[in-house]
Amino acid sequence: MTESTAARKPRRSAGSKAAGTTGTKAAGTTGTKAGTGKRTTRSTRTAARKGTEPELVQLLTPEGERVEDAAHAEYASYVADITPEELRGLYRDMVLTRRFDAEATALQRQGELGLWASLLGQEAAQIGSGRATREDDYVFPTYREHGVAWCRGVDPTNLLGMFRGVNNGGWDPNSNNFHLYTIVIGSQALHATGYAMGVAKDGADSGVIAYFGDGASSQGDVSEAFNFAAVYNAPVVFFCQNNQWAISESNEKQTRVPLYQRAQGFGFPGVRVDGNDVLASLAVTRWALDRARRGEGPALIEAFTYRMGAHTTSDDPSRYRHDDERAAWEAKDPILRLRRFLESAHHTDEGFFAELEAESETLGKRVREVVRAMPDPDRFAIFENVYADGHALVDEERAQFAAYQASFADAEGV
Amino acid sequence: MAAEKMALAKAINESLRRALESDPKVLIMGEDVGKLGGVFRVTDGLQKDFGEDRVIDTPLAESGIVGTAIGLALRGYRPVVEIQFDGFVFPAYDQIVTQLAKMHARSLGKVKMPVVIRIPYGGGIGAVEHHSESPEALFAHVAGLKVVSPSNAADAYWMMQQAIQSDDPVIYFEPKRRYWDKAEVDKEAIPGPLHTARVVREGTDLTLAAYGPMVKLCQEVADAAAEEGRSLEVVDLRSISPVDFDTVQASVEKTRRLVVVHEAPVFLGSGAEIAARITERCFYHLEAPVLRVGGYHAPYPPARLEEEYLPDLDRVLDAVDRSLAY
């Protein structure tokens, strides 16, 4: 059985230069205190627990500097040979995803969509992990994985049908190995595990990745998925985007231990990665998928990130969180830090950014046009695809519905 | 091959065996289904012959069983899942209702969910709490699911074959108190469609409609009534969703009276729906309101009281008398 190495040994000593990791300054001091073996009160213990917030894997600081850390060498090796072109690609993915997301939010405000669940702030976690997948891998998303969908080649306008209310998903999961959005929290973790069990039975070396959030980590289905995956050694990667908020409930309402540590109890490794660092997200996900493909079983990745926007367009975060928290996370913006790195490394020029800006606008325009032209479904769609092999009651009710509709035509003498 | 006499549980076992033999994508999953052969031995010997990779002892987690079965179906497998007892299905109810039932529609038909969920159900075996319930209406109410229940070994064999072949999720309720009842099973006979009812006894004075464990009881009722000169027709519904209303209607148009019998509580049970539909379809044929005999709106009682709770010969005859008295 593989133990969670992340849980066993700190990846960086408390006093070392904490390269932009969350709350590591506090970690350094309180952590040391706790380490002296002094008797602590409950409140200081809690503080110590919070203070010794675990280290996360980071390869790119918020200032855009590459982290050269021996403790992360294994993960870093997965992006060691990344080319400037690939880096520009990641940047482009994140920018276009954010542009698409902003367009969707605007379309909701204009009444074109009934609802939108924004991924603002989570671009690095999604693009990094999404780009780690291979074509034959299979992805099980929640309803916020617009960036992962982008990486899988799903036409972004396909994602909007359910938010406009013209279908409940509707894309073919098998054309991009990207399953339908799942709204019930955590259900898809089991689907991913079952799918991965099937991959193993087939003797294939594909990987499966299940997305979910910090809120979903409380669901029984997620724990059951961890356990089934461990028991059957299924090639599935659990990718938890801890965006700090489950609608209005913070992490403290979901868990008493850092989420990645849950893996240890199930018997597979868990790693916390800086979810605003696209390079680290890419590296750690490659690592996890790679070992899954080799038959080494599941892994849990906790991508530590932040939901910059509301839970959905129906939510009002001002009721439960302060603006200064958001401001602190803005300084760790995933796109900004890659831009800083690209610029300091001279991997880009003004032309690149200008072209990308134009591409973004084109995408926004296309999304707008497609959504506005998206027709309401035919009313008889209610009765379509309820069953694959048909059902007498559905047939009967469809006929009744048709007769009822036709009665208006008769009345109008049409 | 000639028909062979076997118990209902054995018929399901043979049907599962045939499915495992004929389609490599068929899997058996559940708690204790492997080495033990299930608590009722329905999967006896299957793991020995088909291996742990196809007859899978799962962790004790019903939602996990159904949730992973959905994932396996997405991968192209045809899982046949066992829920150990009726009252233990509820941890999986969310996966069944929100995912399994709706996946085909959600994908606009691009995804199919050929999953069979076997549930031993009903009372009469003197069991402890949660081991004697009849929750079929809770599944029949959900669009996207199909719900069936065989009453005899031959149907059990063939309905399982058809359920596994179905591209829709089928909840297959097994009448556990009839597991040991034997009947002729012809493995070569080509059956009719899965979701059709069958008149198992012809009569002229009143129709009894039932499924699963209550069909045998209704046949006994018909015998008893015959001694009093009453001719009862018995319809084995076989399918609870969809219900073959045409067969029931044809019977009621002949007999003009209908009593529906099930172990499940009467309130909002299958009988309520059948009563409503048959009243709509046969209003001018009916000589009496459609009556129902079933469980009460109370938790399934402790075993010492179950005979009071379950429909029996006298309670059904009482309903027959009331109907005929109109």
Keywords:
heterodimer, A: about 425 residues, alpha/beta, Rossmann fold, 2 domains, five-stranded parallel β-sheet, two-stranded antiparallel ribbon, disordered N terminus, B: about 325 residues, oxidoreductase activity (chain B), Transketolase-like_Pyr-bd (chain B), EC 1.2.4.- (chain B), Transketolase_C (chain B)
Structural class assignment of chain A: alpha/beta
Give the end-to-end Cα distance of chain B, rounded to a whole number of Å: 50 Å
Give the name of the CATH architecture of the largest domain in chain A: 3-Layer(aba) Sandwich
Tell me the total number of β-strands of chain B: 14
Question: What letter string, H or E per element, gives the SSE order of chain B?
Answer: EHEHEHEHHEHEHEEEEHEEHEHEHH
Strand order of the largest sheet of chain A: 1-2-3-7-6
Reported by name, the CATH topology of the largest domain in chain B is Rossmann fold
Please tally the helical runs of chain A, counting DSSP H or I stretches of 4 or more residues.
17
CATH class of the largest domain in chain A: Alpha Beta
Task: Calculate Rg of chain B over CA atoms.
Answer: 19 Å
Total count of helical runs of at least 4 residues of chain B: 12
Largest interface: A-B, 43 and 47 residues
Largest sheet descriptor of chain B: 7 strands, mixed
The number of domains of chain B is 2
Q: What is the class of the largest domain in chain B in the CATH system? A: Alpha Beta
CATH superfamily (homologous) name of the largest domain in chain A: Thiamin diphosphate (ThDP)-binding fold, Pyr/PP domains
- CATH fold descriptor of the largest domain in chain A: Rossmann fold
Shape of chain B: globular
**Main β-sheet of chain A, in a few words?**
5 strands, parallel
The helicity of chain A comes to 40-55%
Examine the secondary-structure arrangement and name the CATH architecture of the largest domain in chain B. Answer: 3-Layer(aba) Sandwich
